[in-house]
Amino acid sequence: MMATKKSRVVVPEKSLPPEEQQAKINEIRKSIGSITSKFPMLCSDASILRYLKARNWNTKKASKMLKETLKWRLDYKPEKIQWEDVAHEAKIGKLYRANYFDKHGRTVLIMRPGLQFVSQRHSPLLCKSTSSTEVQIKYLVYCMERAISDLKPDQKQMVWLIDFQGWNMSSISVKVTKETAHLLQERYPERLGLAILYDPPKVFESFWLLVKPFLEPKTYKKVKFVFRNDQQSWKIMEELFDMDKLESVFGGRNSIGFVYEDYAKRMMEEDKKMSDSTDNECLSHSPSTMILELQHSEPNSDLTSEASDDETDSSTFLEEVEEKIEGFSLGSKDVETVEVDTTSKRSETE
Predict the structure, then answer these.
(1) What Gene3D superfamilies does this protein's entry cite (predicted)?
(2) What gap in Å lies between CA 198 and CA 249, rounded to an integer?
């Protein structure tokens, strides 16, 4: 029998006046030191502000989070990933960036996790590389980097449009889920503006209820459930997207959808533009030297203790989610009686 565990403690989100925000930004920049000049974009006011918001304005925790991201970028070199490194992962169209923005000018990342399951059954050779967590995460990083570079000047966040056609519980990879959660929360904080879960099956709604208590309120408030046969859902889509550009799978009037050859050409063109990315300036310096600089500016013991607590909470959360995924089994009767707190209700005619 699975032991009962407590959900994470909800800390009320703070709101600070502009002058206090700037003071905290300056404090973090000072704690990191001269290396900030070698990462002008990542250490800009707007970027530091995202890390502060992610850590509820705790400067020590935000500083550690940013330093860890700097170290990760020096080691992983996400800006160096090229289309040819991940092209095979994109063939089935399970993850790609749309060639349009939402009406707020936000980049749109389209995810179709159900295609992974369908393709594994019918085209195992096509999906051979997708069995590697490392490759899947590398492609996700590539997509995130390109999506960020494509943001409008006045936008810092993106929209995820997730299609659940063909999805079932076997589509979930615990390892990939863990790696994805860590990457998005720790390396790309506050980049998600809205996540639309399009027509998820009832079994996913039940799984969502199990996971939701362990998520930060600011995260799950960004999630909207949308159902194809619900009028209120259509209002959400029409308010967010140009229906002439939106793919027909999401109820739009664009019947073309994802074409791998066209997408590959587009990505290769963008790779050329990314070669002079602003943060690539850091590559003229020795990565090992910069890592040493970061280590010399490591936080004091109080921060180390706080960070350890955070890591323990995160680890415990992921363990709980893993147990729920692996032990999740619902009968048809259970599925039918689950209620979901969503923006729109599933149509009775479904």
Answers:
(1) CRAL-TRIO lipid binding domain
(2) 10
Strand pairing report for 95-101 and 107-111 = antiparallel
Residues in contact with 87: Cβ distance below 8 Å, sequence separation at least 6, in sequence order: 264, 267
Collapsing DSSP to helix, strand or coil, 79 comes out as helix
List the Cα angle 167/169/174 in 5-degree steps. Answer: 115
**pLDDT, tens only, 268-310:** 999 988 776 544 444 445 555 556 556 656 554 444 445 545 5
Residue 111, strand partner residues: 95, 162
Look at residues 98, 106, 87, 92 and name the one whose alpha carbon lies nearest to residue 250: 98
For the chain, the first-to-last Cα distance in angstroms comes to 36
Q: How far apart are CA 96 and CA 189, in angstroms?
A: 20
Let me know: does 32 contact 67? Beta carbons within 8 Å.
yes
3-state secondary structure of 174: helix
Nearest alpha carbon to residue 178 among 170, 189, 166, 186:
186
DSSP character at residue 185:
I
d(CA 130, CA 137): 10
